[in-house]
Design brief:
The structure holds two protein chains of two kinds.
Chain A: H1 6-37, H2 39-42, E1 46-47, E2 50-51, H3 52-82
Antiparallel strand pairs in A: 1-2
Helix pairs in contact in A: 1-3
Chain B: H1 2-8, H2 13-37, H3 42-49, H4 53-85, H5 90-140, H6 145-148, H7 161-171, H8 184-200, H9 202-209, H10 214-251, E1 258-259, H11 265-271, E2 276-278, E3 286-287, E4 297-299, H12 304-311, H13 316-354, H14 360-383, H15 389-413, H16 419-443, H17 462-481, H18 486-494
Antiparallel strand pairs in B: 1-3, 2-4
The chains are: A mainly alpha, B mainly alpha.
């Protein structure tokens, strides 16, 4: 086993899952939440000439997605180092 | 792609969010683990993880169905480009496209495709963005199309572009551009099917198997999304511009119609392809485009991207650039998919299951035969499309969502999931989704309205329901049949951390 102990293996996986779930919550809220479910409410607000809900559906969500992946890459690299399971 | 957004307005967002959001799922839930697993194809993962030839074969069949549906959509796109520039009708255009794609794939092979893809992507992005910048400057004085389509129009009225577009759309009997006509649940389901489908598409996943490290697999999903987001952020801007231009050039600035004898060149050019038709219903000699019974124009949605620079009267070289970009995009995607089909048939299906004794030469022959058959069939659907390009492609994503995605996710995150559960789930998921699409698109197209849909979900979004069914069935069957063997559970443990990932190996 690559981990120092079974506890480490469990803890690593737990932290991994919690990071993943947090990011997926953001992913869900921005796209499905702002872009679809709440779109009518947000469309009451004008944002630089866009209706805000429409902007989230066609621009904001995509920008958020890019940010999410890079945050994940960075945090996972840190996690791999913490538990000594990174590649050489 | 901008074509569908232009016609669909807000409803087009499902494609934008769907095709980009899937990369988040891919990076967070699939890519690193599949890379650590270290095989090249999805059927290999499914077959090994579920210790079953049957599971592998089902995954192969799903891969073929998904890729084939996708190619059928691409062929239509290629056909549109050729028919416009050779000024032939769409059927001839599709056939020319088929021949080119066939030689390109069969003679090129896998390596060629991976290398040229980067170059093609650059051509595509360039071809997409240059005209968008021109049009944005022309219409709103904004250099960035992304801010331009939220800006005010330059004719001095001080009106916002999107406001004008909503007004025009409603005046002409369409739904308001920024609001859309689909029900909320349908939008939700389609977006979900597309996102999950992106993460489950065999030819997309394969890209992440071949990077050197697990860390690279995570990172390369990020870079891939960054690149495509450049195009996807521009698309809605192009869509809004082209819709305003379309209304203005066909209906005239006064919205009363333009004399047919003075129709702009692009209308005449596209008429030769049969993708634009004008029928003078009220006999006034003027063209009129609307969403109600005053309408006299039939405009194929698939031409919008290509026609857009012409409609905006941009110079000929910009038009040519867009065409080059379109061909590059369609060629590389179709070639990648054809490879999935031909290797699935020759390697996974024939060599590994049906005819283990065939020689390499025979294997190659069957691979080429499979590619040829796939091209001819998809060419047929390119000439007689069951929907426009993006819609057909959406079916492919729905099928991928309903078949692979749950099997892969459960394979990684549920280590006790067993063979029977995964197989039952995949079979139920893809059969249900496939039957639903075929029923509403081919058997009873006249019933294809929200009243007849299950829960009001259109065939484009049904993959989401298929995916849920897949999960439910997999869990139920797993409950009844017991856990996966110990050695498989250990294998799953070992793909959950990066250390020790070797070079990705072939079979």
């Amino acid at each position: 086993m690559a981990f120092q102990s079974a506890e480490h293996a469990k803890a690593y996986w737990r932290e991994n899952l919690s990071l993943m779930l947090k990011l997926l919550v953001v992913w869900f809220v921005v796209s499905y939440g702002f872009g679809i479910l709440l779109v009518d409410v947000l469309n009451q607000i004008t944002f630089f000439g866009f209706k805000l809900g429409f902007w989230f559906a066609q621009q904001g969500s995509i920008l958020t997605f890019v940010a999410l992946i890079f945050i994940y890459v960075k945090r996972m690299a840190a996690l791999d180092n913490k538990y000594q399971v990174h590649e050489d | 792609m901008a074509g569908i957004i232009a016609f669909a307005g807000y409803d087009g967002s499902v494609y934008l969010m769907g095709w980009t959001g899937g990369y988040v799922l891919l990076a967070l839930c699939l890519a690193p683990y599949l890379r650590k697993f270290g095989k090249f194809t999805v059927p290999d993962f499914v077959g090994d993880r579920y210790y079953s030839q049957l599971a592998r074969t089902i995954a192969v069949i799903c891969a073929i169905v998904v890729s084939f549906t996708y190619i059928a959509g691409q062929m239509r796109g290629v056909g549109v480009v050729f028919s416009r520039f050779l000024e032939v009708d769409i059927a001839t255009g599709v056939i020319i496209g088929m021949v080119i794609v066939f030689f390109y794939t069969v003679l090129g092979g896998m390596k060629g495709i991976t290398y040229t893809q980067v170059a093609q992507y650059c051509v595509l992005a360039f071809a997409y963005i240059v005209p968008a910048i021109f049009i944005s400057l022309l219409m709103t004085d904004h250099f960035l199309p992304q801010t331009g389509f939220g800006a005010t129009v330059t004719d001095g009225s001080g009106q916002f572009l999107l406001e004008r577009l909503d007004g025009l759309s409603q005046e002409l009997g369409f739904a308001a551009y920024t609001e859309g006509a689909r029900s909320k649940i349908d939008v939700f389901f389609i977006t979900c099917a597309l996102m999950v489908g992106t993460a489950g598409l065999p030819h997309v996943i394969v890209r992440f198997f071949t990077v050197p490290k697990v860390r690279d697999a995570r990172r390369s999903a990020g870079w891939a999304l960054l690149f495509i987001s450049v195009v996807y952020l521009t698309a809605p801007a192009i869509a809004a511009f082209s819709k305003v231009n379309l209304f203005n050039t066909i209906n005239g600035p006064e919205m009363t119609g333009v004399e047919y004898s003075q129709a702009p060149d692009w209308v005449k050019n596209w008429e030769k392809t049969g993708l634009i038709k004008w029928e003078d219903k009220n006999g006034d000699g003027k063209m009129f485009y609307s969403g109600d019974d005053r309408n006299e124009m039939t405009i194929d949605r698939d031409i919008m991207v290509l026609a857009n620079p012409e409609i905006a009267s941009l110079p000929a070289w910009v038009v040519a650039l867009v065409a080059a970009g379109g061909i590059a995009a369609a060629l590389s995607t179709s070639a990648g998919l054809l490879l999935v089909i031909s290797t699935s048939v020759s390697h996974d299906l024939l060599k590994r299951t049906l005819m283990p004794n065939i020689s390499d030469k025979q294997e190659l022959f069957y691979a080429r035969l499979a590619a040829a058959v796939a091209i001819v069939l998809s060419g047929y659907f390119g000439v007689n499309p069951p929907g426009f390009v993006a819609q057909v492609v959406a079916f492919a994503f729905g099928l991928a969502a309903a078949s692979f995605f749950p099997a892969i996710i459960l394979g990684i995150f549920h280590k006790r999931m067993n063979r029977a559960g995964a197989i039952a789930g995949m079979v139920v998921g893809i059969t249900f989704t496939f039957a639903y699409i075929v029923y509403f698109k081919f058997i009873s197209p006249e019933l294809n309205t929200p009243d007849h849909w299950i829960l009001g979900v259109s065939p484009e979004g049904i993959g989401t329901l298929g995916m849920i069914l897949n999960f439910v069935v997999a869990f139920a069957v797993h409950k009844m049949t017991g856990d996966a063997p110990e050695d498989i559970q250990e294998l799953v443990e070992s793909i959950r951390y990066p250390k020790g990932a070797g070079v990705a190996h072939d079979h």
